[in-house]
């Protein structure tokens, strides 16, 4: 297919309108997207923390697939495990995935400003992978000695996408120093704080457009037709590389 041809353009249009994220599933991009991973293992961090916690909360569980994987291999029979999810299409997916494991999934969107629907001092472990959180609310519900583990997408993640398509950064406050500051102000002690930078590589413009359909918050104003020239330019210099930025924090309530 020739870059810039009518068939190429139509393929991009179909890619952009033909996909939507359900849960947290990038399988449609298998073999077309290669992404580095941070040097730490956040899943392993969570498994270790879960092994000594009795009351566990997973914020922003997506379709529940990640939490289900964490539960595999640990005895959770006598543990109380709850998840939240703020994106409505994910709720039935997560509830279906986690019901057999006895995990309740509660609708909660942290961006509404609503507090977490849990009592004070009621949770031993809060996990948040790529989900917004209110530091004061996390501190409130953690029991003394309770832990908060989070991995976040840094504010300047995929800066090339923002530059190519003239999109502002949606969450400029999501940086390691700022999050450490808010958690400390909420009364938590920081045990671990790390940053990482890596690369995400798309085989062609169609893969990039598919990705933008799955994560529209990276470029909410993007349309294929408005950026045909840019997409053709990118497609002529394959692969298309984008910078990833992540950070992790482990915090403890004294």
Topology of this protein?
Layout: H1 6-17, E1 33-35, H2 42-50, E2 55-59, H3 65-71, E3 80-85, H4 90-98, E4 104-107, E5 123-129, H5 135-141, E6 142-153, H6 159-164, H7 176-185, E7 189-202, H8 205-214, H9 228-235, E8 240-252
Parallel strand pairs: 2-3, 2-5, 3-4, 5-6
Antiparallel strand pairs: 1-7, 6-8, 7-8
Textual characterization of the structure:
Helices cover 31% and strands 25% of the residues. It has 254 residues and is α/β, with parallel strands linked by helices. It has one domain (6-253): Rossmann fold, CATH 3.40.50.150. An 8-stranded mixed beta sheet has the order 1-7-8-6-5-2-3-4. The N and C termini lie far apart (60 Å).
CATH superfamily: Vaccinia Virus protein VP39
| Main structural class | alpha/beta
- What is the CATH class? Alpha Beta
Q: What CATH architecture would you give?
A: 3-Layer(aba) Sandwich
Oligomer: single chain
Largest sheet: 8 strands, mixed
Number of DSSP helical runs = 9
Q: What's the gyration radius in Å? A: 20 Å
Give the number of domains: 1
Element string (H = helix, E = strand): HEHEHEHEEHEHHEHHE
DSSP strand count = 8
| First-last Cα distance | 60 Å
Net shape: elongated
GO molecular function, one term: S-adenosylmethionine-dependent methyltransferase activity
Pfam families: Methyltransf_11
Protein name: Methyltransferase domain-containing protein
InterPro entries: 23S_rRNA_MeTrnsfrase_RlmA (IPR052939), Methyltransf_11 (IPR013216), SAM-dependent_MTases_sf (IPR029063)
């Amino acid at each position: 297919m020739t870059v810039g041809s009518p068939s190429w353009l139509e393929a991009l249009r179909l890619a952009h309108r033909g996909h939507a994220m359900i849960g947290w599933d990038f399988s449609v991009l298998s073999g077309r997207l290669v992404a580095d991973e941070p040097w730490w293992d956040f899943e392993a961090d969570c498994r270790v923390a879960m092994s000594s916690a009795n009351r566990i909360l997973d914020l922003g569980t997506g379709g529940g697939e990640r939490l289900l994987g964490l539960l595999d291999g640990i005895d959770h029979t006598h543990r109380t495990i709850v998840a939240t999810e703020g994106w409505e299409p994910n709720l039935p997916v997560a509830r279906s995935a986690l019901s057999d494991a006895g995990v309740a999934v509660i609708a909660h969107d942290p961006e509404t400003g609503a507090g977490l629907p849990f009592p004070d001092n009621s949770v031993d472990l809060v996990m948040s992978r790529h989900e917004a959180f209110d530091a004061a609310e996390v501190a409130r519900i953690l029991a003394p000695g309770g832990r908060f583990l989070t991995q976040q997408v840094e504010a300047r993640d995929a800066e090339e996408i923002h530059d190519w398509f003239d999109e502002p950064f949606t969450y400029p406050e999501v940086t390691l120093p700022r999050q450490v500051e808010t958690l400390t102000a909420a009364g938590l002690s920081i045990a671990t704080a790390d940053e990482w930078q890596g690369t995400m590589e798309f085989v062609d413009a169609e893969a990039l457009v598919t990705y933008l359909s799955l994560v529209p918050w990276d470029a909410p104003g993007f349309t294929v037709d408005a950026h045909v020239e840019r997409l053709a330019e990118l497609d002529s210099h394959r692969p298309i590389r984008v910078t990833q930025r992540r950070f992790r924090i482990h915090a403890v309530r004294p």
